[in-house]
Description:
The protein has 182 residues and is an all-alpha fold. The protein has helices at residues 3-30, 33-38, 50-73, 77-104, 115-146, 150-178. It is built from 6 helices and no strands.
Amino acid sequence: MTNVAQDKKVLNFIYIVSAVIPVAVGLLMIMPTEWKMSLGMTENTPVSSLPLVHAVLNGLTFLFLLMALVAIKNKRIIIHRTFMISALVLSSVFLISYVIYHTTHPSAKFLGEGTVRYVYFFILISHIILSIPVIPLALLSIWRGWTNDIEKHKKITKFSFPIWLYVSLTGVLVYLFMQPYY
């Protein structure tokens, strides 16, 4: 397979994944609670502790992204790649775990009042909105870096890196706000 054909195949995969994931997650959010509960999950299963796992995965992703930034600033390309692939793996594990949790558990409601409510919803809404473009941006960034297409890699990381960093950090913040309600 030529490089152009391989690139086209990978880009098509990225576009498909980038469209399917937000739709699937959106459907999970509107899935009736009765359907989720009928899958046999109760509050006292190992799956019920996944929100904490999600926060840890998001926190580690945030740290790995920062370490990847430090590595590339110091021209440590192999270390940079290692941290970026690690961040991608952690984000992927998070996404799978998130789908499992939200397929089997009703969404918790935030009950905070006053200013904290506005802060929470600002963080949550911006997190949700930016989590959609981070999928193709992160995948394209990693693909361009992996294939050594450094010019395209640099162009896309100007957008993908800060968005991915923000989404991973706000994922932890959403958990901290919601922790009393799980």
